[in-house]
Amino acid sequence: MLAQLRGDFPDVTISKIRFLEAEGLVQPGRTPSGYRQFAPADVERLRFVLSAQRDHYLPLKVIKEQLDAADQGAAPSATAPKPPRKLVSLDAPGENGGLPSPGDFETDREIRLTEEDLLRQAGIDAATLAELRQYGLVRPGAAGFFDPDAVLVAKTVKAMTEFGIEPRHLRAFRAAADREVGLLEQIVTPVYRHRDEDAQARGDEVVRELAALTVALHTLLVKAGIRAVTGG
Hints:
Protein name: DNA-binding transcriptional MerR regulator
Helix content: 55-70%
Region (Disordered): 73-107
Pfam families: MerR_1
Strand content: under 5%
Domain HTH merR-type: 1-69
Keywords: DNA-binding
């Protein structure tokens, strides 16, 4: 089962699958001696869950609601990927003009990029990067390298400049993000400190769930604020 999934999801682990099972997203059969047996439908169901998390950054609760609705024969939401009876492909990377979608933001990336890599991949110049660093929007690691998220941040800021928003205007975003990190850290750190073998997987899921909820809340608050200002 892992061999079938790891071609598309190289980071999937037994602990991750067991966590998803514990959350009710997949229910494999059992042999008389208690070993799990994953049918092809179970593998497709897992593939949908992992894709929905990675590509759409959906919380597990929402994914489970979609799967439950599909199991009952209900039509899926028009804004969500179609749950599997027959699994459908989700959005391909690179859509939205190359800009990041929420699912692009992962927590366990190991790729290290030089400054030249960042400039080339983000399509920005050295002066723009200097501004991003000045206002804390992009930060290299201790060894001086950048991670792929820095490219996504730079691309996003570049797109915002087309609306007249400059990096200096975005300092509040950096400050707000730092405050959110401090809050979420208090929640997830105790989860990671558990000594059982599934602690890492549970911690990663809590991070993804909270990050997705944070993005959703921020979006809703901004939309509500804009409506209040414009009278829309």
